[in-house]
Amino acid sequence: MDIKGLFANIPKRQLYMLLGLLAAGLLFGWWSLLFKPAWEERDRLQTQLAGLEQQLFQKKRIAANLPQLEAEIKQLQARLKASVARLPEEKEIPTLLTQVNSLGEESGLVFTLFRPQAAVKKDFYAEVPIQVRVEGSFHALGAFFDRIGKMERIMNIGTLSVSLAPAAGQDGRRRATALTIIAEFNATTFTFVGTGG
What we know:
Number of helices: 4
Strand content: 15-25%
Number of strands: 5
Radius of gyration: 43 Å
Shape: rod-shaped
Distance between the termini: 92 Å
Order of helices and strands: HHHEEEHEE
Number of domains: 2
Helix content: 40-55%
CATH architecture of the largest domain: 2-Layer Sandwich
CATH class of the largest domain: Alpha Beta
C-alpha cells in the first residue's frame, strides 16, 4: 500500500484538516495520558512538601525550645512531688487528726465535737471532711487557726460559725470568763490516692 498515493488523491484542504485533527488527537492523548497525570502528581507532591515543611518547622521550633521544656517539666515534677508530700496517705490520717486535736488543746480550746466524715475521692486525691466544735477564747481560736496554717500537711477550714457560750458550761459549772465562745466549723484535709484514683 502506497501511503503517498493515498494522500495524493485527497484534496489539500481536507488533508490539512485531517492532519490538524490528527495533531489535535495526538496532543489531547499526550495531555490526558502523560501531561495531566504528571501535573496532578506535581500538585500532590507540592502539597505534601508544604505539609512536610510545616512539620519540619514545628519540630525545629520544639527542638529549639527542648531545653526550656525539659527544665519546665523538671520544675513541675518537683512541684508535684512537694505537693504530694503535703498530702498524707490514708494510713496517716489518724496521726494527723491526733495532731490537730493536740494543737487545739495547746491553744487553749476544748473540743466538744470532732467527727471525721467519709473520704470523698477526686482525681488523684481524696478530701477528708471533719466536723468540729470547740469552746475557748477568741484568741485561742485564732492561735489554733494560725497553728493549723503552719502545718506541713494541708488543712482547710470552712463554714465557720462563732457564738458566745452560755454563762454555765455543759457540765453545769460556771465559766471562768464571759468571753468564752463556741466555734463550729468544717476542717478538710486531703489524702493522696494516686493518678486516676
